[in-house]
Amino acid sequence: MIYLDHAATTPVHPRVAEAMHPYLTNVYGNPSSLHGFGREARMGLERARDRIAHILGAEPQTIVFTSGGTEADNMAIIGGAMAQQDRGRHVITSSVEHHAVLHACAHLEQLGFEVTYLPVDETGMVSLEELKQAVRPDTVLVSIMYGNNEVGTIQPIEEIGRFLRERNIVFHTDAVQAFGVMPLNVSELPVDMLSVSAHKINGPKGVGALYLGRKVPIQPHLHGGKQERNRRGGTENLAGIVGFAEAAEIAAREMEERVAKYRQMREAMLAVWREAGIAYHVNGHPERHLPHILNVSFPGVHTETMLMNLDLAGIAAASGSACTSGSLELSHVLQAMCLDDTVMRSAVRFSFGITNTVEEVEQAAQTTADIVKRVAR
Question: Where do the coiled-coil regions begin and end (predicted)?
């Protein structure tokens, strides 16, 4: 079996599982309890917060733990917009965002907000000029993802952030796919909110975090307790948070090595296809892309046909976001990029991770080429 769907989720690192174990067995107190068991749990929670804050270049009190990237996005967008509705009710995002952002924006529209969905070019890139034109006096929030989860295109976050900061508009970025493979330092990056998730970096599922700048207004969406400095009610997932911190530190230490490895894998895969002489089209920006995501179309081979044949050969890949798996609809990202219909209907996403080797990636590429030669019309 060859797993090439790390953009969907990743296997838990052995050292992460080891770090979590005490918090699944012996350290079982509630972090909000005042007795010794609770204080021990609280120490573990705050150590993890310090570790993740350090990696992001943030202050510990600006880190809010959530149940994952989806909740972090919802908290930022819905909570951020609702907290500022007296200033205005206009929000801007892009047409290629993860559904955690798009559906949160759709919810705001039901609440009476106006949302502008920026178009992208054929590489999946947002235009800074079009964003500038979309800003209005009543714009209170902009959310643009750091790197796309389907095609890997990296957006001009720094340029967008600088422009919005001059106009005092709150800026959120979904950095779930970028975290662990791109250096993210919020003390230098002009963003007000940033979402990350554990299970994309070999941590456990069900835990994420939102960086929330000190002066950023937010309306809590979960009520029932004073946890996370009154910003998210509910007992924290302590074992998951400890595992998240461990995974984040490992990823930060190994980032340079991992990125070099993923780039080598990408080039190895493309080299096999060039050598095989098959027709293929790489989707996304040719230079500004996440190193671990390769979205490619094989005209003449339907996406579902390719994925089924790969699965039969023991190779796991994807058609796009795991949140839309099983859907027969075309990818909203590829549609927004206005790609040719034959390209959109034959797109497959391969995504690399720490368990992969160059040899097995080459094997998967050769199997893919064999499938194309056998079934392409």
Answer: 245-272
